[in-house]
Amino acid sequence: MSSRVDRDVLRASLSDLDERQRKIVGGVIAIMIENSARVRDREWVAEKFTQVVLLSEEHEDASGAPEVMARVQAYARANVDALLNACFSLFHCVAEDMESRGEAGFTREEAVLHALSYLAR
Question: The pTM is what?
Answer without folding.
Answer: 0.88
